[in-house]
Amino acid sequence: MARPRLMPDNFTLMLVATVILASVLPCRGLAAQIANVVTNIAIGLLFFLHGAKLSRQALVAGITHWRLHLLVFAFTFISFPLLGWALQPLLAPLVTPELYLGVLFMCALPATVQSSIAFVSMARGNVSAAVCSASLSSLLGIFLTPLLVRLLLDAHGGSDGQSTLDAIVKICVQLLLPFVAGQLLRPVIGHWVDRHKGKLKFVDQGSILLVVYTAFSAAVIEGLWRETPILSLVGLVFICATLLTLVLLATRYSARLLGMSKEDEITVVFCGSKKSLATGVPMAKVLFAGSTMGPVLLPIMLFHQIQLMVCAVLAQRYAKREAVAPVTPVVAPLPK
């Protein structure tokens, strides 16, 4: 039986189940401390495997498309944060201040890697450029996201006084160092990692679920659901859908205005409009206090599902376009 197109994927269903579990049985006391240590180890392993999976050949093949990468980075780290900040007077009243803080955090995140590449491949776009762009976006995000979050928090009036430099150092230790170690060891373990990608995805998903569980446990204990009205959740759906729609349109028409090929347009659309849950969850753990993490993570969790459903439909439409057939010159027959 075919899976309904708009039905959430299995990982999203597990995220929902994790939030429900944290709401009913939140992690407390010693158990919370142990879970926090295990979560830190899992996050380090997650980024170690990301580094081991990244092919240098794919990066080299796609790095020459500098106009494409600049456009993607401009949308990811400039246009998206500016949209969240500029639309704040219109959109912030729809949700609680904590939820809109999460919206601003989401806007500052880098692009996804796996799903961006998967959708570009499905849509018959420039896959090598997508690998390069999405991977570099994740690396740049380690440095740019804390800076953007600081700027947006100051504008939002929600700064907690934490040093941006301290946050970058913590993120580098927890995310960048394991990633670099994985990349350096790729010649040794790369083949094994490539052969077991299907099994290793459980490390990715498990680490995210652990962070979500501990974050929502702390938030529930502090009264998250008592202080979050249902109308705010509805408003959050509208905000995420609005931001995604605006960026999808902007990426599409910007690529066309610059005269890019259809394959490059596809890469810009899918890499420039995505936000990474896998990177956002561990970054939130560093940048925000425990009880604040729950409402901060809600926007990116919701945006993650909306972008998957919308981009799946969009990728199928791109894939159905007619391939451009090579022009065969017509040679007139020679006179007899």
TrEMBL record:
InterPro entries (alphabetical): Na+/solute_symporter_sf, Put_Na-Bile_cotransptr
Superkingdom of this protein's organism: Bacteria
PANTHER family membership: SODIUM_BILE ACID COTRANSPORTER 7, SOLUTE CARRIER FAMILY 10 MEMBER 7
Name of the protein: Bile acid:sodium symporter family protein
Keyword Transmembrane set for record: yes
A Pfam family per the record: SBF_like
Keyword vocabulary terms for this entry: Membrane, Transmembrane, Transmembrane helix
Residues that span the membrane, as ranges: 41-61, 68-87, 99-120, 127-147, 206-224, 230-250
